[in-house]
Amino acid sequence: MRGLIRFERGTKMAATLKAATAKIGNVLLDSKKEWRKKPRKATPQKKRPHYSKGLDVWVHDTSEVWLPATVASVGKDGSLCVKFENGKESVVKPKGDYPQVSGITQYYEETDDLTTLSPLCEASVLHCLRVRFYSGSCSTSAGVTLIAVNPFKELKGCYGEEVVQRYREGSKSNPPHVYGMAEKAYSQMKLGLDPKNQSIIVSGESGAGKTWTARCLMEYLATVAVYNPGGFEPSPGDCIKTRILDSNPILEAFGNAGTVRNHNSSRFGKYIQLQFDRGQHIIGASIQTYLLEKTRVVHQSTDERNFHIFYQLYQGASSEEKAMFGLGLPDYYLKYLPMKSNTAKKLEDCQALKTTREAMAGIGLTLTHQREIFQVLSGLLHLGNICFTSDGEHESCDIDEDNKDYQLSSEFATRLLGLDEEQLEKCLMFRKITATHSKRKSVFMRPCTVEEAGTRRDCMAKLLYARLFDWLVSFINKSTCAGQWHSFIGLLDIYGFESFQSNSLEQLCINYANEKLQQHFVAHFLRAEQEEYSIEGISWQFFRFADNQPCLDVIEGKCSIFSLMNEECCLNRHTEASAFSTRLLDSINGKHINKPPVTVRYPAFVVNHYADDVTYNTQGLIEKNKDHIPIELIELVANSTKQFVSKLVQTDLAEHEIQPVKSGKMQAKTVVSKFKTSLDSLMTILTSTTPHYIRCIKPNLACVPDIFDSGHVVSQLRACGVLETIAISAKGFPARIAYAEFQQRYQAVHNSIQAATGINKDKMAKTFCVSLMESVFGDEDKENETAGTQFGKTKVFLRSGQLEELERLRAFALMEAATCIQRCWRRYQRWHKVRRLEAATLIQAAYRGWRVRLCMEIMNDAARVIQHAMLEYCIKKQQEKELQRLELEATKKLSLEKSLAHVDDCHNADSCSSEDEQEFHECRDRLSVAREHSILLSSPNHESHPNNQALQPPSVGLIDLQHPSGLALYNSGILPRRCSKCGSVTNPQPEQHGSELDDDEDADDKEVRHDEDIQTTQVGLGGTLVGIFKKPAVDFALAAVVTALLLKGPVQL
């Protein structure tokens, strides 16, 4: 082109061509770049909120945080002129969206579930809590969490037996309440869904009402789960309930104290396990405590008190007890007991001591135990008055004998604690040092300075009080703990978040425990809940939340505050507080630990907790972490003359004796390491249970009623993640059940799904779940997939209220099944009863027949015996008459023979006439016959004579010895028997009846019997009957008849 057309430089045509070529090149270059670059997505412009006149919105406020206002006008620059409820107007320029106000004040009063608020925002949540607080409703539901605002006053009608019974019925119309949360946990435990064990976690800052809430939870569960099957008064369950509830006043007296932020602050943490049997009846309880603030015994901050029990004992003890314990002496000041109590507080302490003593008696502490406990407490107070003095700052010290209270303090302390005064002074003023050289040990006694002696004195007081507290907890557990239990509900009441002007190791451990609880909530609900939704593949929009795990890493991680503190303790070197704080800030990287403000004049570091930023003083931090107890103090207390005091430190003495030694240094556990281990075990228990959360909110810092500090309340809501909790609860699924478990549990509700060939078990279970949910809830889930039930890969996710509806249907189905089973069982019982009645009737009939037959046999046998005896008697009488007749005839015969002889003589002498001859022959014949008859009677074969057959008694037959009456008759010698083997007949030995006497009968018996026979003969018929009934056989027969008659009557089965 250049060769063909040539333009000279500077001409107009050349300039035009150059410009056109450059333009074309630029176009091609731009098109090439656009082709190489990825297409950009058009970013939608953020739609600005549209505000119109008359719209009700929430507006930021300095004091109330959020206030409702009405838009009066809208400026061109986006500013708003709003009008508040009090009539004031203000011009604001919103930096973001101002949420709209929905409804009126009554709407917020009636809203007891924050998940139903519309729109759901911080302003509406705060205003709802504010309105309900002033209306007297201090409990509000926030999804899985219950928000309880402390009213700092007694609310009438909110607690008591009537309210307990109302929530026990489980009505859905009941407003949110602490009792409702307890009933929810109790109901889920009864359902038996894994995990069956429940935990109720009560959290909040100091003074928010955690101790009161835990007490109400315990009272409710101990009341509704009492077991009284027999209707006893009092029931066994009431005794257990009394012992469990009596532990509260004791633990509060020995573990609570008055602080600047709370007049009844828990200075220890406790986890109470209420134990239940298989019938869900309470059978016991166990208590586990955490980190008692024992330093409070010897040191209290300004305007704070020691533990309650000291004031109760000082104010409420009787005059005799005060004289015995050395309390209430005039002009006697107790260093450990700052007395700034007013008259009302003194009366409250006196009444509290009565409650504490009643509770001690309730758990089984005798008067002797109580006196020993009060002696230790009084001895500790006197021990604190022992003072020391020295000439210089670093020189050895001596007892300050110039102190006027020393003599009394030393005397009472040694007497009440059973210690030797000289040994006590020696242990306090001298320190034992053990030096090890190879196999040799050298012990040196080094004098202590005033500060060291005071530290040792305070160490001894803290040791005794801590061991006394542990002994009380152990005694309570022995009194209330059950040997075996099926499930439990745990109540966690741990110290609230604290931030004072000067914070030390105690506040660090307390806030660390609150961080662990917050992390448990975050991990279990906020994070794990959404992660499970993602894993199961259900539609879910992820919510952002504040995670406090980085703060925990700063406190307990590998290179953390705890690790550096333990390292300093193991090195056992003296480190300045400023140097240690500098090392912490240099070694730990993270935004959760910072330098203290410039206004702080002591060495410290700042930790950004989830609730607030707290400045910790490093002075004395390492020494508190060591918690070193000199062995000589332990040995001194172990040698106490008081057996109760000596037993308190036996565990410490045993641990010191078995503690290993490495390189001449004892490997002792520090306070933070032991506390971290106990908290880890607590978190393990909480993770294995189904948690329920109660957030206690403190409405104002002054702890006064009817004041709602919105700024303080909203800071607590933000720190606890309440807004995120409400959002997730409103759109989340509070219940989720595996398909197989769902099918097994609700098979009774819907039985339309049958096992089909070729369908695996999991798929069948899922099909069952879908079919059941469609049949129960219809097509409401299909209309909005994100708002209805979600079916994951292995679980079904249920909305709020759906599980309760399924449980209601299941209970109805089980009730119908139970009714059917009961009906069948009653029918079986009735049939079985009829069968038994018929069998009993048959047995009775057979028995009556057998009894009648037996009676008839006995009566027949008796009749035969009587007949036999009667016949024998009659024969005997007939024979006697016959003998008498024969004797008479014999007499006549003799006279006749004499007459005959006389006749013969006369006949021989004189001749007689024919008539006399005939009479003579007739008389001779009669005499011959009489002579022959007398000969027959006297012969032994008289009975076989044919003329005497009619005189034989009738046969009574043979008997069987298996028959009781027959055996008796045979043994009596009345009837013969037949042998069952050979069939031979055996005649019994005859009884001595009438004239049939044995040959060996003596003469006296013969004479007596002969006299009786003569008397009977003379009396006549009456005598005859008496003689009959005197016979042994007759006596036996009559006894048999009477026995048979007594057996007659209805048979009682």
UniProtKB/TrEMBL annotation:
Any Gene Ontology CC annotation: myosin complex
Chain residue ranges for the region called Actin-binding: 679-701
GO BP annotation list: actin filament organization
The species this protein was found in: Acanthaster planci
Residues at which ATP binds: G204, E205, S206, G207, A208, G209, K210, T211
SMART domains found in the cross-reference section: MYSc
Domain Myosin motor: 109-811
Protein name listed in UniProt: Unconventional myosin-XIX-like isoform X1
Alphabetical keyword list: Actin-binding, ATP-binding, Motor protein, Myosin, Nucleotide-binding
Gene Ontology terms, MF aspect: actin filament binding; ATP binding; microfilament motor activity
Keyword Ligase: no
Family statement: Belongs to the TRAFAC class myosin-kinesin ATPase superfamily. Myosin family.
Polar residues: bias regions: 938-952, 983-992
Gene name as annotated: LOC110989067
Region named Disordered: 938-957, 981-1011
